[in-house]
Design brief:
This is Acetyltransferase. Pfam families: Hexapep_2, PglD_N. It is built from 3 helices and 25 strands. The chain folds into 2 domains: 90 residues, Rossmann fold (3-Layer(aba) Sandwich); 114 residues, 3 Solenoid (UDP N-Acetylglucosamine Acyltransferase, domain 1), CATH 2.160.10. α1 links the parallel β1 and β2. By secondary structure, the chain is α/β, with parallel strands linked by helices.
């Protein structure tokens, strides 16, 4: 069976994900491409860049797509586009990822090198976990959540859909009776230390993290 794997997004995130896909899917008869409707070049890192309509019209019988786009709302839109086109989402996982007991991950997750997922974790679709991030025990993470590099998500934390956790942020451990909650669409700034719940749609920064006051 012939197969083509498309990485949606030819910029930085996609360029880091393509080697992981090559390693996990093997080469053989599998072709690898970037899909990017706005890219001004035909190749990136010796890999062809094509438009979505070109991808749909390719002759391979098996088409897979990994969505390597940082903006979570764009990721959701592209995931819906794949679903509408009958295209299967695929994930990518570095060989150095550590996954322990009872971890369930939705489709389309991209797990960069040295990510650790410990135990009793539930993660939604199209999760992005960048370099050296970890998720500790008894956490629940929604759909289209993004972890920048070195995020420390400690135990009994609930992160709702479309939240963004910035580089080096630390999320304090909650309890089974009262998990610490990062609300839907919230943003945790780079290096922030989150010690209490973050309301939906709120940006927090600093140590301890507090809502960002715009001047």
């Amino acid at each position: 069976m012939s197969r083509v794997v498309g990485v949606y997004g030819a910029s930085g995130c996609g360029r880091g994900i393509l080697p992981l896909l090559r390693a996990s899917h093997g080469t053989g008869e599998t072709r690898f491409l970037f899909i990017d409707d706005g890219c001004a070049v035909d190749t990136v890192n010796e890999t062809p860049v094509i438009r979505w309509d070109e991808f749909l019209s390719r002759p391979e019988s098996d088409k897979l797509v990994a969505i390597a786009v940082a903006n979570s709302h764009v990721r959701e839109r592209l995931a819906n586009k794949c679903s509408d086109g009958g295209i299967t989402l695929t994930g990518a996982r570095a060989a150095s990822v550590v996954e322990m007991d009872d971890v369930a991950i939705g489709e389309g997750a991209l797990l960069s090198p040295f990510v650790t997922l410990t135990s009793n974790i539930r993660i939604g679709k199209c999760f992005h976990a960048n370099l050296y991030s970890y998720v500790e025990h008894d956490c629940v993470i929604g759909d289209f959540v993004t972890f920048a590099p070195r995020v420390s998500c400690n135990g009994n934390v609930r992160i709702e859909d479309h939240a963004y956790i910035g580089t080096g942020a630390v999320i304090r451990q909650g309890t089974p009776e009262k998990p610490l909650v990062i609300g839907k669409g919230a943003v945790v700034g780079m290096g922030a230390v989150v010690t209490k719940d973050v309301p939906a749609g709120t940006t927090v920064v600093g140590n301890p993290a507090r809502p960002l006051i715009k001047g």
